[in-house]
Design a protein that fits this description.
Distance between the termini: 11 Å
Number of domains: 2
Strand content: 15-25%
Bound molecules: pyridoxal-5'-phosphate, 2-OXO-4-methylpentanoic acid
Number of helices: 6
Radius of gyration: 20 Å
Helix content: 10-25%
Order of helices and strands: EEEHEEEHHEEEHEEEHEEEEHE
CATH superfamily of the largest domain: D-amino Acid Aminotransferase, subunit A, domain 2
Structural class: alpha+beta
Shape: globular
CATH architecture of the largest domain: Alpha-Beta Barrel
Length: 341
């Protein structure tokens, strides 16, 4: 199969319509089988629930070309399951998990020419999305829904590749206690748009959100979980009921424990502990694992000892092992790498 003619090593992270997407519709209480389409547009009623009451959710996953030139996805069953949980919390009909994985495979196969070649550092970003498409004017869930999966080739999420990032602490919360921070609802991202742009305007790559109840503990950023390494090389993961259970983070925890023999602590992490940490990183499907060099607050700038030039040693080992598994260079736990083509 002939690949598209793209500058694969410099893709950045932006929308680019590819040849095929999958769509299924919920109507009269059931999901249609769904099919591939070439049309990137969706026509909707002006009263569609998604426009007014933000009834929408999504997932983010990637397909990779491995060292053997297979095309694989990474733990798609986990995204299927998270979207199931998200849908339930938003009064949306979950898309059957097995069908979700099959639809992802279909989209990847149909867009194989868009999967960045092995060694370019790129991947095919896959975006499953579900919206309340039926008209709804009283505050209530829609009666009709659209489930769609589209995909595009991407490179680094953060500008500047994997140079340590500068973050800031916003005056805003991203999630509420007992709210929707733990699911992948579009509304969480709507909440973060203003603080994200504020951070960018002030020269920071992302916000470190604190726990919304006490503003004492570290939660996550707008699009990633956070991971620390302390000075005794223990991987420390902030635990909270209002952060998204990142599949990347859970995989890194397994890599740290099972493959690198590191100690891992998952516990609430006070913001004032950052100054004692050795390394800090952001992790997620889009971001992979991106190092943090500095966190700005109103009172002080906290510099991590790993510095502003390179990734900390343990973070690099974690990143290299995870990407090695995804690219087929390192054998990972059973079921993580899911061959599609
Ligand atoms: N936290 C937030 C708010 C996110 O948007 C994401 C991205 O999906 C993550 C964490 C990382 O999750 P995952 O590793 O499953 O992509
Ligand atoms: C992902 O990592 O897949 C996400 O959905 C995060 C988003 C900020 C791009």
């Amino acid at each position: 199969m002939e690949k598209k003619d793209l500058d694969w090593s410099n893709l950045g992270f932006s929308y680019r319509p590819t040849d095929y997407r999958f769509q299924a519709n919920w109507k009269d209480g059931k999901w249609s089988e769904g099919e591939l389409t070439t049309n990137p547009n969706i026509e909707l009623s002006e009263a569609a629930c998604v426009f007014h009451y933000a009834q929408c959710c999504f997932e983010g996953m990637k397909a990779y070309e491995t060292v053997n030139h297979d095309i694989v996805t990474f733990r798609p069953d986990q995204n299927a399951h998270r979207m199931h949980n998200t849908a339930l919390r938003l009064e949306m009909p979950p898309f059957p998990e097995e069908q979700f994985v099959k639809a992802v495979e279909e989209v990847v196969r149909a867009n194989a020419a868009w999967v960045p070649p092995y060694g370019t550092g790129g991947s095919l970003y896959i975006r499953p999305v579900m919206i309340g498409s039926g008209p709804q004017i009283g505050v209530a869930p829609a009666h009709e829904f659209i489930f769609r999966i589209f995909a595009m080739p991407v490179g680094n999420y953060f500008k500047g590749g994997i140079k340590p990032l500068k973050l800031t602490v916003p005056d805003y919360d991203r999630a509420a206690p007992r709210g929707t921070g733990h699911i992948k609802a579009g509304l969480n991202y709507a909440m973060s748009l203003y603080p994200t742009m504020e951070a960018h305007r002030n020269g920071f790559a992302e916000n470190v959100y604190l726990d919304p109840a006490t503003h004492t503990f570290v939660e996550e950023t707008g699009g990633t979980n956070i991971l620390f390494v302390d000075k005794s090389n223990t991987v420390v993961i902030p635990k909270s009921s209002s952060i998204l259970p990142s599949i990347t983070r859970r995989s890194l925890v397994d890599v740290a424990k099972e493959m690198l023999g590191l100690k891992v602590e998952e516990r609430p992490v006070r913001f004032d502990e950052i100054k004692d940490m050795a390394e800090m990183s952001l992790c997620g499907t889009a971001a992979v694992l991106a190092p943090v060099g500095m966190v700005h607050t109103e009172r002080e700038d906290i510099y991590l000892p790993s510095g502003m030039e390179k990734m900390g040693t343990i973070s690099k080992k974690l990143r290299d092992t995870l990407t090695g598994i995804q690219m087929g260079q390192i054998e990972g736990p059973k079921g993580w790498v899911h061959k599609v083509l």
